[in-house]
Specification:
Blueprint: H1 2-8, H2 12-20, H3 27-40, H4 43-55, H5 64-76, H6 80-89, H7 95-107, H8 111-122, H9 128-134, H10 144-157, H11 160-168, H12 178-190, H13 194-202, H14 209-221, H15 225-232, H16 242-255, H17 258-266, H18 273-285, H19 289-300
Length: 311
């Protein structure tokens, strides 16, 4: 379907143009439109979401996929109040609707509301009994996104006690999931408990790129630059990614390890804007302003100027 292809290839405006040509859009067309608007995250996209949502036939509201898409679009376009009104007026909520709201809160820097909604979801009272069952073993895979969002919210808040509370609620069977492990390493690093992060990391037989990178970042966030660099040098070359280099350079930057940063930077074959920017920040923090300017000039010889390099 052309509509889906446009969305998949991040061509939301073309998808919207196609929608406007449809005389009698059905619920699937509207769902795809909301997905397109969610990609754009603009005021114009929000206005379109509101306009179309007012035209939705009442019969379409039984389509929980459509409602989830609408909630996601409203949240991504920044209209939290409208999304909340729709969410709380919906009688038969499903797990993805909670996920859309929780993720939206995090994206709108309202992490505490994510935690509150997670706690509401975990409360077995009343109408949440069905949802609670969805998060148990019979449908455990569908609950992974919910736990990931909750973990991310606590990481955003940076509260150790909240981290402990969330982790205790994660089923044991999920603790071996790659996504959960990476999220927990990130969480413990961001609440200042590197030992907890390392305990999880050390249990991984063959860490992947994300797990290595997250552990390097956890060290860096907590001023443990030498440990970050030691781990970085253990990473197989084929697993090194832009984010890995950025985290390693950041760790050097925050620990004053300028020489180590220079060595890492020198050995990077494909230097991206983010890598240049991070190295420039490292040099600037060390008051090596001339070298920082040289890197800016080097980058701009082959690329357009980028504002973050000057901030």
């Amino acid at each position: 379907m052309v509509f889906k292809a446009f969305i998949k290839n991040k061509q939301a405006n073309k998808a919207i143009a196609l929608f406007n040509e449809i005389q009698n859009p059905n619920d699937v067309h509207m769902l795809l439109l909301f997905n397109s608007c969610a990609q754009l995250k603009t005021k114009e996209a929000l206005d379109l979401v509101k306009k179309i949502s007012k035209q939705i036939p009442k019969s379409f509201y039984s389509n929980r996929h459509l409602l989830t898409s609408l909630l996601d679009a409203l949240m991504k376009c920044g209209d939290v109040a409208h999304a909340e009104a729709l969410f709380y007026s919906s009688k038969d909520k499903v797990l993805p609707m909670y996920g859309a709201m929780m993720k939206g809160y995090v994206e709108n820097n309202l992490a505490q509301k994510t935690i509150e909604l997670f706690n509401e979801l975990k409360n077995p009272a009343g109408m949440n009994t069905v949802l609670l069952n969805q998060m148990k073993l019979d449908d455990i895979q569908s609950s992974i996104p919910i736990y990931l969002i909750a973990i991310k919210a606590v990481a955003q808040i940076g509260d150790y006690s909240k981290a402990q509370s969330i982790v205790k609620q994660i089923p044991d069977c999920l603790l071996a999931e790659n996504q959960i492990r990476s999220a927990l390493i990130d969480l413990w690093g961001k609440v200042g408990s590197v030992d907890e992060a390392k305990l999880i990391f050390d249990k991984i037989r063959q860490p992947n790129t994300i797990e290595y990178t997250t552990m390097v970042n956890s060290y860096g966030l907590n001023g443990m630059g030498m440990q970050a660099i030691a781990l970085f040098h253990q990473i197989p070359r084929e697993l090194l990614h832009e984010a890995t280099y950025v985290c390693a350079l950041n760790a050097c930057s925050h620990s004053g390890l300028v020489d180590e940063a220079r060595l890492i930077f020198k050995n990077i074959e494909m230097k991206t804007m983010r890598i240049y920017s991070t190295m420039i920040d490292c040099l600037s923090r060390a008051s090596a302003f001339e070298q920082a300017q040289e890197l800016i000039d080097e980058y701009e010889r082959n690329h357009s100027p980028y504002s973050t390099m000057y901030s």
